Amino acid sequence: MDYQKYTIATLGSHSALQILHGAKAENFNTLLITTPDREKFYKRFSFIDEVKTIPTFADFPTVEKDLKDKNVIIIPHGSFVAYLGVEKNKNMTLAYFGNKAVLDWEQDRDKQKKWLLESKINMPPQYDSIEKAQFPVIVKSFGAAGGAGYFLAKEKQEFENKIKTFKSNKYIIQKYILGVTLYIHYFYSALTNSLEILSMDRRYETNADGLGRIPAIMQQEIDIDPSYVVVGNSPLVLRESMLPEAYDMGERLVASSKKLISDKGLFGPFCLETIITPDMNFYAIEVSARIVAGTNLFTDTSPYSIFHHEKPVSTGRRIAMEIKQAISENKLELILD
Amino acid sequence: MDYQKYTIATLGSHSALQILHGAKAENFNTLLITTPDREKFYKRFSFIDEVKTIPTFADFPTVEKDLKDKNVIIIPHGSFVAYLGVEKNKNMTLAYFGNKAVLDWEQDRDKQKKWLLESKINMPPQYDSIEKAQFPVIVKSFGAAGGAGYFLAKEKQEFENKIKTFKSNKYIIQKYILGVTLYIHYFYSALTNSLEILSMDRRYETNADGLGRIPAIMQQEIDIDPSYVVVGNSPLVLRESMLPEAYDMGERLVASSKKLISDKGLFGPFCLETIITPDMNFYAIEVSARIVAGTNLFTDTSPYSIFHHEKPVSTGRRIAMEIKQAISENKLELILD
Amino acid sequence: MDYQKYTIATLGSHSALQILHGAKAENFNTLLITTPDREKFYKRFSFIDEVKTIPTFADFPTVEKDLKDKNVIIIPHGSFVAYLGVEKNKNMTLAYFGNKAVLDWEQDRDKQKKWLLESKINMPPQYDSIEKAQFPVIVKSFGAAGGAGYFLAKEKQEFENKIKTFKSNKYIIQKYILGVTLYIHYFYSALTNSLEILSMDRRYETNADGLGRIPAIMQQEIDIDPSYVVVGNSPLVLRESMLPEAYDMGERLVASSKKLISDKGLFGPFCLETIITPDMNFYAIEVSARIVAGTNLFTDTSPYSIFHHEKPVSTGRRIAMEIKQAISENKLELILD
């Protein structure tokens, strides 16, 4: 089996270090495509064999031909859609790890809702109009954008005031579910048809995660507006008695993706972003159908990864292991698009 | 030394994955007893040699004879008392890792109080009646139950209102100590008479750990009632200058257990659940005389475990190491009950 | 290369376990100097070859002669200045890892400000007098002291009330920046002139990190005063798109230290203590020009350390690796003072 023939590549952002570090651990060639401002940064790391610089991420198609000659396999992450948009992802002619048909279902909140419903996963109640809402509500813009497009409203008047200056005119209104957040990092193998939970995290959001350190009385007098911009992640483990349902939810998402999206369905890394309520129920906020940034906490191993693997395995490395197995079994067509 | 003769077994919940993963790392046979709804889940993990399914956990005594023939050593965890009750634990005829005499002292809050006092460990002031209380108070039901049986009251009237609908009529009233929580995971070896701190955590409780992300003004208008249901854990380390006292508290607990409980006293894994106040004092909330769920963060190694061991050691693996040593030194009677 | 000739030593506090554990991993002799109350504690750990006890940390100079005979290299940490003061550090005649000239710039807030400005790192606006302040403000005493010397004020009157009982009469007034904290642990090699980010954390402060779990309405009625006493740390990773700036800030600090402080400038471990605002900007609160306690989370490895090293490397071990390289290249004079 000649891995030297293949180069694992990704865009310089999000979880690129983890992906290429994992690829190198599995002895692949590694290549990173980035913009001039980040070139110096990525060149610090010796596990990246080649850094290719393009003027802007939108120029990605101009290097496709060159990358094709290098037998590149592209690993998409959260910045691919943010930087290239769904269409440029779909039109990519390079070997692409994952099922591009899932992209539409990840991006479109109505499709997500249908997918989660079909998977029998609870969601916060959602309202067509503010008139029908139960308060408090959280209002979210459509599309990714790293968590900036949110606001809370405790009554209709507050909603009306805030919506005027909201940056998006495509949004959804959900009941605000009071609980704690948990992001579950899955990996589903299309080669063995088996599911692993590799790790878990919670997001670290500014300024939301700083508010609690300010006494209530001071908060009120300084008139704070909460924001939910994701700037990091912190690790968590889940109560073991809730793990069976966590695995089941992942399997139901995969099963319904095969029914709703395409035969191949969802595979590789994905994430279910949940809120856990005091009755110990999970409510899904979102499905991310690719590696998520919370896995960056576990670039070596994780409390869950070691239950599935005898060596240190990150999500990035797990992707490389899957590709390696597909190469050796001559099944690359099962995992590339 | 023939480990093949022994099988390490536990109930399918709480920290079972860690316990059996650690046992397998030390080359023991592993067996899990669980209920039908969790059978599929535990069969995912190859380090579990056998999954034995019983209709309900209460049916455990029906399989004891069979387990005895397999030379099983049972590792108890937090779900043993929750599912079987203290009596069924005591009446178990299988080899049981730990000292069953400690169970009464763990379950009975009055005995816990006596034990902590004898160990010269601070506790929050406790009140016989609400008339004598200094507010705010926290009211806790007797027994385990995963942290659900709590409420806060800032004055007598609030206590009177909340106690009416409280699910338990056996409870204690404590002064609410304002600080931060820290759970210290100890292991005391009855073979070497030495203490290790293996790791530390804080609990992740719904909805208490979500409250701080909601601005004070919104909290007030949506009329939030806090709850403290433990659904996970997150990692911590302690300021090094406070570590000597953390070790000393553990040794004092062991020493006083030998005096108060029985000659063998407390050994194996245990946990002191503390609040640290701004004057850097520890207040003990509870002693858990067995492996706690927070150790599930450290199924590989931990920032403290590596100070005692040259290989990756979880609390689960540490238990297996102790059993292995006892077997090789012919001292199993020192650690089994 | 004969490491047996050298002994790595430090004072028994702060990050001593990590430092000596890392030194032993690199095969150095290890020695710890501590006070009688901590002697038993440090003797628990077999990677510490010798524990030397002195009546108080201030008696350190009395053992210098003896240590010199043992060919000791001293690794300073946060407790060195706290226990010995800047002058005793500067007057130390033992081989001292680091640049003592940096101590003045770490201790003096005006010099820190100059250093950060020169490094083009944002700082919270600072006010000469309360008359000119934009509220809310945070008031900080000069010097270290583990985070105890702080208070918040939302208006002038509150400032006037609190300053009366403030323990320090040397303080600074800063605008309180609303965001989330992130502590970045750097290591700059004076041998290779290259920078590594080894890990990141946030502090765990009592009672500030407990406040958020108390509902706003209860906080108000029990009249809470926040405090910021550091008793631990919890792990974090940063959004990858912000990592390039995190590295750049570190390099700018090193570059300006060579200009402002001395030719050697800042090298070895250091930390930038930041607040990240919702516009994803870093604001520096402080530079610590030595190993910080947050690295104690990563005594084995860290999510960032593995991007620079193929083996498990803590900050403590990284220091030992640097010393080892300097010995083998005959360049100890580059890293000792």
UniProtKB/TrEMBL annotation, chains A, B, C:
One of its GO terms (molecular function) is magnesium ion binding. Pfam families: DUF1246 (PF06849), DUF1297 (PF06973). It comes from the Bacteria. Keywords: ATP-binding, Ligase, Magnesium, Manganese, Metal-binding, Nucleotide-binding, Purine biosynthesis. Residues 101-328 form the ATP-grasp domain. GO terms for biological process: IMP biosynthetic process. Its cofactor is Mg(2+); Mn(2+). This is ATP-grasp domain-containing protein. It comes from Candidatus Roizmanbacteria bacterium RIFCSPLOWO2_02_FULL_36_11.
